[in-house]
Backbone:
């Protein structure tokens, strides 16, 4: 009985082979799952790029609208408010002059 029977060696080698096959199977399943995750990730990245492109287009439109409104406000300011302020200033100066002139008469 100084040697191990061959049936034990077969069992040990069979268990070891089964363990190696199980590890390789799990590794293959992990690679398959990661391939699916990469494909899903690429789809998400493409959708995100499309969304960003759409948002850039919207931002350009909004910037154009804001620029147009800004120009309109500046035109209204220069056409209406600036002359109105000048008229108000002239009226204030005239009113002050008349008040000063009328206070000297009293």
Residues:
């Amino acid at each position: 009985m100084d040697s191990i029977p061959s049936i034990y060696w077969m069992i040990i080698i069979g268990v070891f082979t089964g363990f190696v096959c199980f590890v390789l199977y799990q590794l293959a399943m992990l690679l398959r799952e990661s391939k699916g995750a990469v494909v899903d990730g690429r789809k998400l990245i493409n959708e995100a790029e499309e969304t960003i492109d759409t948002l850039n287009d919207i931002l350009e439109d909004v910037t154009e609208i804001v620029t147009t409104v800004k120009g309109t406000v500046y035109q209204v300011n220069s056409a209406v408010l600036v002359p109105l302020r000048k008229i108000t200033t002239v009226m204030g100066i005239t009113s002050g002059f008349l008040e000063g002139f009328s206070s000297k008469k009293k």
Observations:
- The two ends are 143 Å apart (CA to CA).
- Residues 3 and 63 are 88 Å apart (CA to CA).
